[in-house]
């Protein structure tokens, strides 16, 4: 028996080493993955105004400095969304009270956004707990592969929007066989059992994730995007996806099902960047969660650790505004860094999550952003609750929450356990 146990331990150790090797090899070569190679840098002070004045209290922050930083991010990083009016119509196309084994009610809602003679449909999937009386708090999320992939539920409508050709997908069309393929990321049953509603939409409904000169998706709704030359400060896809989150929030505020003051926004990877930006520009989000968001999300750009500004602008030229390309290999000249993005959430709770095996997203840089945002939170009497990056799987749940877990670039059950505990704490 003892030999069997020793054998199992040895096997587990080998598997762990193999996993770590995979993690290391998965990182693109030619980039910084060692702290000793990080160059010296200094961060812009979120509490020093453009005119040199020091922010001394929360009112001065809210009335002046926050607006300055928000403007800089709009003009230099994410871009400005169009300001012209548009029409919005909500239609509940399906409602089932016995979903998820009778534990939840499923709603499928079409949010139709129109401008002139163009329109766009955002398909919002909602599960709400049957054991909890309305209004209920909720997690609003944005998914990568279509609503039908977040759960095996056969009644979820398959997206008709563009999807990426991968894992056997052809002609950019979703398939029945892909139903539930991303269910491990969403822990929907756990969310429902904890008394929260779960809402999600497919990011490709708003803006397909490829570069065609900003003619597709929501960019095509606005005549100025097509008929005139884009400005260097015009919005990219991350701002477009964040705009979609706000349109879903418009619907949520019309539906008595939801507790409108307890809505959390959550996203992973590029959609973690999106969640942070959505939380910055739309203060209706009461809690913001960024999962493995990396460069252009929670990680400090000036560190140039893992993915860099040049690499992200080269690989994904449609994500940010044109001005952001000025900072390719020139990060120190950017008037903002990502700790200032985190600070825009203050005093609302914000959670930043990293993964030990995800060096490309710079876990330490994500934590240092939380540290850099703390002076703003202290204006409101809040903080992070840690001065050094915590050990793996030892979360910190201050007003700014943070954890680094074991594993790779993904969303796991462990992540959701922390998000639910964090929401319970701040939504009580």
What does this protein structure show overall?
This protein has 428 residues and is of the alpha/beta class. It has 2 domains: 2-30; 58-84 and 133-427, Rossmann fold. The chain has 12 helices and 10 strands. The chain has a 10-stranded mixed beta sheet, sandwiched between helices. It is globular, with a radius of gyration of 21 Å. The model is unreliable at 1-25 (pLDDT under 50).
Features:
428 residues; alpha/beta; Rossmann fold; 2 domains; 19% strand; globular; disordered N terminus
CATH topology of the largest domain: Rossmann fold
- What is the CA-based Rg, rounded? 21 Å
Low-confidence parts, pLDDT < 50 over ≥5 residues? 1-25
Series of secondary-structure elements, N-terminal to C-terminal? HHEHEEEHEHHHEHEHHEHEEH
N-to-C span: 49 Å
Instruction: Tell me which oligomeric state these chains represent.
Output: single chain
Count of individual helical segments: 12
CATH homolog superfamily of the largest domain? Alpha/Beta hydrolase fold, catalytic domain
* Biggest beta sheet summary: 10 strands, mixed
Summing up helix and strand content along with how strands pair, one would put the structural category as alpha/beta
Mean pLDDT: 93
Give helix % range.
25-40%
The top-level CATH class of the largest domain is Alpha Beta
Shape: globular
CATH architectural group of the largest domain: 3-Layer(aba) Sandwich
List how many beta strands DSSP finds. Answer: 10
Number of domains: 2
Strand order of the largest sheet: 1-2-3-5-4-6-7-8-10-9
Instruction: Give the DSSP E fraction (strand runs of 2 or more residues).
Output: 15-25%
